[in-house]
Amino acid sequence: MNTRSPSMPPPRSAYQTALVAASWVAVVGVSIACLAWLWPPQLAPLIAWQRLDPYKQWTGYFLVGLLTFDLSLALIKRRLVASGALRALQLAHRILGLTMLALLVMHAGFAHQGFLHFAFFTTMLVVLAGALLNLLPGRYLGTWGQWTTALHIGAGCLLAALAVMHLYFVYAYAS
User: Fold this and answer.
1) Residue 141 CB contacts under 8 Å (≥ 6 apart), including other chains
2) Which residue range(s) make up the domain with 100?
3) How far apart are CA 145 and CA 129, in angstroms?
4) Is 17 within the bounds of a domain?
5) pTM tops 0.85
6) Which residues contact 108 (CB under 8 A, 6 or more apart)?
């Protein structure tokens, strides 16, 4: 006997709950990062680390490595047919996006200008668009989901290009 009323949605799986939780963490993280971008905190230890060349290099390499791996996950998951592997890669993709958001703040802080403002904004756009894909009600996924997916993928590709440009600028103009 079914005790659930017809108007109640079916219960969420652990996978769906994890995606929604990661999406809300992303929305909160982007909000905090944007507020901190407008009113930069003065964290003396972080600022001191960010002035060290080895710190900048290692966090930058780690960011580029994570971005490359994350983009490869997006390509790999298109070829998967097993739902368990696809779900694991989807969660890994979300977690890597959140990790890169935090690492970008650790790498560049909020004192960046010009080009890095654009890269920061693009990162926020990628993370927020990815989060919205899991938070949109099912009835909006047909139209808004397609636009949000296109924005997420397009901004992700732009972010990869910006990372390559940043690497070029760093090594071409390093003194």
Assistant:
1) none
2) 47-172
3) 9
4) no
5) no
6) 50, 116, 120
Alpha carbon of residue 83 to chain centroid: 23
Q: Is residue 101 part of a domain?
A: yes
User: CA dihedral defined by 15, 21, 27, 31, rounded to 10 degrees?
Assistant: -150
Q: Does residue 4 carry a pLDDT above 60? A: no
DSSP string, the chain: ---S-TTSPPPPPHHHHHHHHHHHHHHHHHHHHHHHHHS----HHHHHHHTSHHHHHHHHHHHHHHHHHHHHHHHHTTT---HHHHHHHHHHHHHHHHHHHHHHHHHHTT---THHHHHHHHHHHHHHHHHHHHHS-GGGIIIIIHHHHHHHHHHHHHHHHHHHHHHHHHHHS--
Residue 32, in any domain of the structure: no
What digits encode the pLDDT tens for the residues 111-132? 666 777 788 888 888 888 888 8
